[in-house]
Each structure stands twice: as structure tokens, then as C-alpha cells.
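User: Here's a structure from my thesis project, written as C-alpha cells. My advisor, Dr. K., wants to see whether a designed sequence matches the one we expressed. Can you design one independently, without my sequence as a hint?
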């Protein structure tokens, strides 16, 4: 019976050079990549494989597409991300990868073993520099019917939600997030608490992206979200299901993505708890005589964080 083998990798770029790996088993040069480990999310696979194979810890940029081909087990799908270097942890050769090399972009084609790899490099180089804005639904909370407190603002994460927050922390690190904007409700603050501790930062709490804040003053949401959208800092915005429609509509409009171009599988506002949408924004000076910038969404991706199934 044929199966689909899922894998992920990175096109790691530094100073107009691209990192390639040599695999002695196949005697080939390609990009760092590898199979998903258990139920691992694909972006985390890409980060882990880059770290394990090269010693470079990456920051992910836009998703570049999927390379599909046949392997003995069945069909293989390799998801690629453009990436930059977060940290050099040191290369340790082993039986899987014995050499790595930084190759100038204009010389990569002569080094790559597989012609289809060049297509993903060309996609990566065609994209402008980007900064992510992540729209995150808070992790799984205690059910309203099970919550014994008087104030729903204080309803915390469930056990599954706390486990989701660990995965979310890894993902926010992997996308290079530097700034956190959150609803003041406890379930949102708990979702990003672990990440904030690692970042040694505090969240900016915004009432209008909470459920009650949006109900009271819906007219305040658009300017608040636009403020985040036009800030070039890599940012996560943690909110609630009832507010996501308005948030994503504002983000898409500000980033120049009309409704006709919003892929349903990516731009769906029906995010499960803990899941999120990443929009990769490009910032361009409006003109040479002004400090004003325009923002354009050049790519978007949707990730579902596990942990919402009922026991």
C-alpha cells in the first residue's frame, strides 16, 4: 500500500550565499531537509533538520511550496521554507551529512545535484525581504460549562492548552517573533506566557482584540490591527475566535490581498484553538522623499496545532 512521506527543509540564505549539504549515502548536494518525526508540525521539522544537518538554527521566512517525487515507500512531499540564520551552533559531520558549504547564489545551479531544487531557490530569491505577523487563536481553554469562576476573563487554559503553548513557543521562536500583542483575557496571556519568558519580554495588552472589548467598541479594532500591521517588527497577535473575522479582514485589506485572492485553506477564520496564520509582509518606502512605508503581504500560511481532540 502506497503511503505519503512528509518532510520539510530550508533554503538557508546568508549574505547572498546559500547553504548546501552533501549526503555521502547518495553522493549528492542539496538543501537541508528530512522526514517529519512523529506528529511534528512541518515548520518544526524544517527547523530541526536544518539544525541537525548543518548546525545552523534557522528563522523561517515564507513557505516556498512542495517538492513531490516517488520514493520506495510511496510518494514523498518536501515542504520548503526560505530561511535566515538565527544562530550558528557548529557543524558536526555524521553518516547522513558529511559536508556543508556556503555557495554564492549565482553558482548554486552548478553545485546542486537535482534540477528541481533550483526552482525552489529561484522562488526564494524572487521574494523581497519580509517580516511575519502571526494571527494566533489562544490555546485550548477550560470549557465555559466547566469553569467555576465568576468572570470569564479569568478562564484559564486546559491541560491540553498548556501542552499546546509549548508547541506555540517553539513555532514563535522559529518564525523569529520579537513582539507580542495579546488580548488581556487569561487564556490568551497564558498561551504566550512561556514564549514571553524565553523572550524576556512583556506583552502589549489590547482590550479591543478581546471578546468583550470588541463587543463594546468594534470601531476601535481596525486602527489597532493596522498599527500592528504597519509595524515592521516580527509580531504575534493573540486573540479569540469571535474576533478573528474582523482581524483577518483588516490584515488582508491593509496588505493588499482582495477576497478573490484569499485561499480558503489559508485565510479561514475557523482556526482551532492554538492554531494560527502567518502573513509575511514586505515593507517599501512610499517614495524617496518620504519616510512613509507601504506594506504588502507576499505570502501567507496556516498551521493547525494539535491537541483539540476530545478524549
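Assistant: Designed independently from the structure alone:
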Amino acid at each position: 500500500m502506497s503511503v505519503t512521506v512528509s518532510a520539510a527543509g530550508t533554503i538557508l540564505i546568508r549574505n547572498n550565499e546559500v547553504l548546501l549539504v552533501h549526503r555521502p549515502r547518495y553522493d549528492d548536494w542539496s538543501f537541508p531537509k528530512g522526514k517529519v518525526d512523529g506528529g511534528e508540525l512541518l515548520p518544526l521539522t524544517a527547523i530541526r533538520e536544518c539544525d541537525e544537518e548543518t548546525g545552523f538554527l534557522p528563522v523561517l521566512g515564507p513557505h516556498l511550496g512542495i517538492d513531490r517525487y516517488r520514493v520506495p515507500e510511496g510518494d514523498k512531499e518536501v515542504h520548503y521554507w526560505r530561511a535566515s540564520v538565527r544562530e550558528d551552533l557548529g557543524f558536526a559531520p555524521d553518516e547522513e551529512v558529511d559536508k556543508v558549504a556556503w555557495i554564492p547564489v549565482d553558482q548554486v545551479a552548478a553545485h546542486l545535484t537535482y534540477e528541481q531544487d533550483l526552482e525552489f531557490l529561484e522562488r526564494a530569491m524572487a521574494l523581497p525581504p519580509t517580516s511575519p505577523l502571526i494571527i494566533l487563536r489562544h490555546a485550548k481553554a477550560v470549557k465555559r460549562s466547566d469553569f467555576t469562576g465568576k468572570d470569564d476573563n479569568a478562564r484559564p487554559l486546559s491541560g491540553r492548552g498548556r501542552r499546546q503553548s509549548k508547541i506555540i513557543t517553539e513555532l514563535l521562536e522559529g518564525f523569529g517573533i520579537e513582539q507580542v500583542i495579546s488580548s488581556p483575557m487569561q487564556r490568551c496571556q497564558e498561551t504566550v506566557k512561556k514564549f514571553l519568558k524565553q523572550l524576556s519580554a512583556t506583552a502589549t495588552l489590547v482590550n479591543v482584540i478581546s471578546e468583550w472589548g470588541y463587543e463594546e467598541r468594534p470601531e476601535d479594532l481596525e486602527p489597532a490591527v493596522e498599527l500592528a500591521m504597519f509595524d515592521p517588527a516580527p509580531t504575534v497577535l493573540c486573540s479569540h475566535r469571535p474576533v478573528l473575522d474582523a482581524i483577518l479582514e483588516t490584515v488582508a485589506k491593509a496588505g493588499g490581498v482582495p477576497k478573490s485572492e484569499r485561499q480558503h485553506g489559508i485565510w479561514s477564520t475557523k482556526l482551532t484553538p492554538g492554531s494560527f496564520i502567518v502573513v509575511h509582509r514586505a515593507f517599501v518606502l512610499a517614495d524617496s522623499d518620504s519616510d512613509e512605508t507601504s506594506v504588502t503581504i507576499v505570502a501567507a500560511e496556516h498551521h493547525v496545532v494539535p491537541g483539540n481532540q476530545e478524549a
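When you compare it with your expressed construct, this may help: Residues 3-126 form a domain with the Nucleoside Triphosphate Pyrophosphohydrolase fold (CATH 3.90.79.10).
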